TrEMBL record:
Pathway: Porphyrin-containing compound metabolism; protoporphyrin-IX biosynthesis; coproporphyrinogen-III from 5-aminolevulinate: step 1/4. Mg(2+) binds at residue 239. GO terms for cellular component: cytosol. Keywords: Heme biosynthesis, Lyase, Magnesium, Metal-binding, Porphyrin biosynthesis. Its EC number is 4.2.1.24. GO terms for molecular function: porphobilinogen synthase activity; zinc ion binding. It catalyses: 2 5-aminolevulinate = porphobilinogen + 2 H2O + H(+). InterPro entries: ALAD, ALAD_AS, Aldolase_TIM. Belongs to the ALAD family. SMART domains: ALAD. Pfam families: ALAD (PF00490). This is Delta-aminolevulinic acid dehydratase. The keyword Lyase applies. It comes from Aequorivita xiaoshiensis.
Length: 329
């Protein structure tokens, strides 16, 4: 074909490149994860996540308004609860006046149109740092799912738009969907963490919430009996299809960058939106390299996020959301 076809012709100027660009980022692409703590006027930087903070409810309200102004229209809430409130039953997770329930109402009151998504898993409430109930060295599947369904209902009652179960128990999407339907929450959506891998990239998040598995006898030190083995690909398809059959409205792949093959494969396989979570470790890795002057922060950030979208992400949960939107708009 050469020289009739010179591929470089379409790269000759930024005007030309922008004309033929296949993947364009927009504020509509993002879900903003937010960490919430008790107190007033609290804005604590997370040690392993530079420039990312835990916010008390009054500052959460301010943040929601700021995000809305930037065009960011969905948030994903996580709470850091006091050790005294943690147990092995998830009792505090069901408290109608718990921190999560108040956080939902705070955002909804501040910006009624903001889409409020909530994390559903027991780890922030677990004395053992596990996503479910622990018994004799095991994470109980069905007992945990039952509590997660109650927790989801409690979030829906507080006003959540989308429930986001991040626990990886089998069958929990069905349990949650069924309970929400029974209780009349027909329009409360479910974003299922479907292909969630047992990843070492979650470290900084566990610092943020103080939610890492504890080092005690007979307590599993990792989450490998419920989160997926990162060596597996076909299993991700199985997990995702089951969640769709159980009633998920959106499915998710997590983490992001190391799993873009999985994102593309799932995107080709299913016909509902696929979310990708660019997780805490991915954020911290770039922050650290940029602090050392080894990588150009903004350039690498845009490259990473664009790659996630190019791979097939319909939406991206990212700690970089604000930074990206400030650059692109
Ligand atoms: N169910 C907990 C949960 N929900 C989201 C993340 C990780 C998010 C991140 O690293 O940014 C985790 C951590 C874990 O599974 O241990
Ligand atoms: Mg599953």
């Amino acid at each position: 074909m050469y020289p009739l076809r010179r591929n470089r012709r379409l790269r000759t100027s930024e005007s030309m490149r922008s004309l033929v660009r296949e993947t364009i980022l927009s504020p509509n692409d993002f879900i903003v994860p937010l960490f919430v703590v008790e107190g007033k006027g609290v804005k604590e930087e997370i040690a392993s996540m530079p420039n990312y903070y835990r916010l008390s409810l009054d500052l959460l309200e301010k943040e929601a308004k700021e995000l809305w102004k930037l065009g960011l229209k969905s948030v994903l809430l996580f709470v850091k609860v006091d050790d005294k409130l943690k147990d092995n039953t998830g009792k505090e997770a069901l408290n109608p006046d718990g921190l999560m329930q108040r956080a939902i109402k705070t955002v909804k009151n501040a910006v009624p149109e903001m889409l409020v998504m909530t994390d559903v898993a027991l780890d922030p409430f677990s004395a053992y740092g596990h996503d479910g109930i622990v018994s004799e060295g095991l994470i109980l599947n069905d007992d945990s799912s039952a509590v997660l369904a109650e927790m989801s209902l409690s979030h829906a009652q507080a006003g959540a738009d989308v429930i986001a179960p991040s626990d990886m128990m089998d069958g929990r999407i069905f349990e949650i969907r069924t309970l929400l339907e029974d209780e009349g929450f027909h329009n409360t959506g479910i974003m299922a963490y479907s292909a969630k891998y047992a990843s070492a990239f979650y470290g900084p998040f566990r610092d943020a919430l103080d939610s890492a598995p504890v080092d005690l006898k007979n307590i599993p030190k990792d989450k490998k009996t419920y989160q997926m083995d990162f060596a597996n690909r076909e299993e991700a398809i199985r997990e995702t299809i089951m969640d769709i059959e159980e009633g998920a409205d959106i499915v998710m792949v997590k983490p992001g960058l190391c799993y873009l093959d999985i994102v593309r494969e799932i995107k080709n396989e299913v016909n509902i939106p696929v979310a990708v979570y660019q997780v805490s470790g991915e954020y911290s890795m770039l922050k650290a390299a940029a602090e050392k002057g080894w990588l150009d922060h903004d350039a690498v950030m845009l490259e990473q996020i664009t790659a996630i979208k190019r791979a097939g992400a319909s939406m991206i949960a990212s700690y970089f959301a604000k930074d990206v939107v400030k650059i692109i708009s």
